[in-house]
Hints:
Blueprint (H helix, E strand, L loop, with lengths): L1 E4 L3 H20 L7 H22 L2 E11 L2 E7 L2 H4 L2 H10 L8 E7 L3 E4 L16 H12 L4 E8 L9 H6 L5 E5 L8 E8 L3 E3 L4 E10 L5 E8 L2 E9 L5 E8 L5 E9 L12 E9 L3 E7 L4 H11 L4 E10 L2 E3 L12 E5 L8 H12 L4 E4 L6 H8 L5 E5 L4 E8 L25 E4 L2 E4 L3 E9 L2 E2 L5 E6 L2 E6 L1 E2 L17 H14 L7 E5 L3 E4 L3 E7 L11 E7 L5 E10 L2 E7 L4 E11 L2 E16 L9 H10 L4 E3 L3 H11 L5 E9 L5 H20 L4
Parallel strand pairs: 3-4, 3-6, 6-7, 7-38, 9-15, 16-17, 16-19, 19-20, 20-28, 31-37
Antiparallel strand pairs: 1-2, 2-39, 4-5, 8-10, 10-13, 11-12, 11-14, 14-15, 17-18, 21-24, 22-23, 22-25, 23-29, 25-26, 25-27, 27-28, 30-32, 32-35, 33-34, 33-36, 34-35, 36-37
Helix pairs in contact: 1-2, 2-13, 8-9
Amino acid sequence: MSLTFGLSPWVLIPALLVAAALTWWTYGRSRPVLPLPKRLLLSALRFLTLAIVLVLLFEPILRMIRELPKRPVVAFLVDTSKSVGLREKELRSALQKLNWRELDATIKVYTFDSATKPQVLEKLPQTPLRGERTDFSTALVKIREELGDDNLGGVVILSDGQYNTGRNPIFLAERFPVPIHTVVVGDSTRSRDVQIRKAITNEFAYLNTLVPVQVGVRNDGYDGQTATITLTDNGRMVGSTTVKLVAGQEVTSEVSFQPSQSGLRRLTASVTRFDGELTHENNQTTVAVQVMDNKLRVLLLGGAPSPDLSALQQVLLSDPNLEVSQLVQKAPGQYYFGGFPDNFSSYDLLILHGYPGPGTSAAEVQKVANAAREGKPLFFFLSQQTNLGLLRDGLGEVLPAKPSVVRNTHIESFFSPSAGGAVHPVLEMETPKTDLWKQLPPLLFNQSRWELAPEARILASPQINGVVLPDPLLAVRSRGKIRSATLLGAGIFRWRSLPEDLDALKEFLPNLTLNSLRWVTSRQDDKPVRVRSTRTLYGSGEAVQFSGQVFDESLNPIDRALVQLTILGPDGDEIPLTLGGLGSGRYFGDAGTLPPGSYTYRATAKLGEQTLGSDAGAFAVGALSLEFQETAANAGLMRGLAQRSNGLFSHAKDAGSFIQRLKESGKIKPTFSKQETDLEPWTLWWLLLTLVSLLSVEWFLRKRNGLL
């Protein structure tokens, strides 16, 4: 409690002294003269009246402060994923033993797996345990955001500690505002179980060619036994092998199959089911492979040996879907790896690196030009040794750009994609992200004046000293069904020799090269509408997502299109989906989780009543849930969450005493809030009554003693 004044209280004290003196003096001069006791009484009555009035004139405010207790909020997070479902009996028992209401707190109950949902406490025992994924970090963030301002006193998590989605929750626990208390369901001892941990194969394969599938099998409790791994395609067995199980270890074996049908093939890898396993749901998994008719036959024609040519060779030779032949000029009319061919009919694509070079003849260049005129796709890489004059005169009419004014000087320039180029199929890749383009090492851009062909499009331009030039650095050209591409920057080996902090960019050159090869060899016209599923194969319980791009004839993005997609399921069911716009001609849609099986889709884009184009594709959903990859409880994670946040750790078997431990720990207690109340005395009725009473008594006594 405190008292404050609107005016300085130091002036009040002299005023009161003056009032006391004046009152005593006044009654000292009264007639008749009053005896001392009566003079004292009347002086006191008047002084009290004057004192109250003076105090009120100084605007006193009486501030009263009270501390009010506030009940804490405790959030209970209960894991409802499938891995916890393997120990359903133990979880249900722990829920029954927990005396939630003994806590002097407001209880908020949530269930979590891939999503976090509020629950009614009474209905918690009936909640199904079917979650396909477990995300601790998202659940904790949601609790912090929803309850952080409601006197959150702690979080209690009931789980087996196995997470497979989201960030590591340990890092979040260190910065969490309240203690995280954990109750682990299950133990770290592995139950008897055989499971397929992985199945790996090539993304693309070719008809009638053996395709290896690496299958990893782990077991606990079946050491030394022999298991059979089978590979099936649409229910038909296409390969099998046997493997000897080793306790507690993952054994990898290879199963090969020879595809007899093209298209997206969804293969199921299965391992023998043994009696007594914890679950059989992890005894199979799915892998998808795109089967194509044949390999792409490529001729790499180099003008001279160079680090750039070596980097390009590594990229091409590392792709099993390419059949690469090489010719590198060492002298006029002479080549490493063979002689110059009479024709190029045996190749699907010609890649020219620094070609024509210093020793290239006009006749050889003319053969390449004739092949391009007849429809042979070209991909040209500039080098510092390129004979630009011969390039202009011999190949200028078949490439996207040619030097109109030849200069032999080069300048370092950075790779800067155009708005339409960044979403073109040639640059369609997960990495680099938009903010990483600038971190690519610079290339050496030739300072010739480059003339763009009428049908060509610039996908990227050189950026020098922060200024993006209108010249082409990466350009493509489509003449009907004949396509070509060109990269007019030397020094691409720099894009392969990157420091560790630029790991996200190390696959840029391979992606750019292989995307370009697929684009120039495609016999389709430029598609104004392109829609793709973000993955060819999705895991069980994983959201199926689509990305789309819509352009006009000049590759300018269209933002206001209506992009509608229809998914056709394995049972013939149709699932409609509308993609939302992201800007720059980009679109995105989430179809949610779908049952295992093979799916096709077709997308159509419209602008008003005008149909802009369509696209189609396929994908598959696997049968193996991530929840069965690890069947043992992760007590270490649960203990770590508690320790890093100053919380308590317990096992489910001790759930009966957990609440009592929590109460005794003092970690959950009420907080106190201050309530301030300002009292203004002049508004009090009884104070006015006091003034009137004092004046009345004084008047009565004065009259009784004969005073005026």
